[in-house]
Specification:
190 residues; alpha+beta; 5-stranded antiparallel β-sheet
Length: 190
């Protein structure tokens, strides 16, 4: 008799705890699901930030390439004029092409002084000249052969630099461009 009495007491104590394991398991699953969803959201946001950073860096390097091209044009061809060109990416998708539209301002000589470090400057023909150039690079996507003026813009970066060139023999064209109009001065960004 004693044995039956203790068995009935132990079953009565367990009947109040029968659903608690289920509730604890369900609560643990809900907490783990919330943690998993938040990790997915954080990962997605970090991937978007990384992609934006990569695009911004590409646009900056396209503008930097524009500075190099402008400098080379002046040194090789003595060409101070503004120009535009397109740098294409290989990352196009079918009909869609991606690349950078690069716009170069005129290469303005803004300060000149006799080149005091040049041993060849006996007659004061060579100068130390500071030039200003502004380059705007825009990441664009387009269909067709070339990007149109209204092509979607994905990112834009403007870089303004001063480049000192010495020894530099000033030409008549470069001397004329020393007198900048207010519009040309507004075009130079620093």
């Amino acid at each position: 008799m004693k044995h039956t009495l203790s068995a009935s007491r132990s079953t009565r104590g367990r009947t109040g705890q029968q659903g608690s394991a289920y509730m604890v398991t369900l609560l643990a699953l809900v907490v783990l699901t919330i943690i998993g969803l938040s990790l997915v959201l954080i990962t997605q946001t970090e991937m978007q930030l990384g992609a934006n950073e990569r695009i911004t860096t590409r646009v900056f390097y396209a503008a930097d390439a524009g500075v190099g091209i402008a400098t080379a044009r002046v040194l090789v061809n003595n060409d101070h004029t503004a120009t535009d060109f397109v740098l294409r990416d290989n990352a196009g998708m079918g009909e869609l092409s991606l690349g950078h539209r690069v716009e170069l301002s005129p290469f303005h000589p803004i300060l000149d002084a006799p080149c005091n470090l040049c041993s060849i400057n006996q007659g004061q023909d060579y100068f130390e000249v500071n030039h200003a150039v502004t380059v705007r690079a825009t990441r664009v996507g387009w269909t067709g052969a070339e990007p149109a003026a209204d092509s979607p813009q994905l990112a834009r970066k403007t870089v303004g630099v001063m480049i000192e060139i010495q020894p530099w023999q000033m030409t008549a064209e470069a001397m004329e461009s020393l007198d900048l109009t207010p519009e040309q001065l507004a075009e130079i960004k620093f």
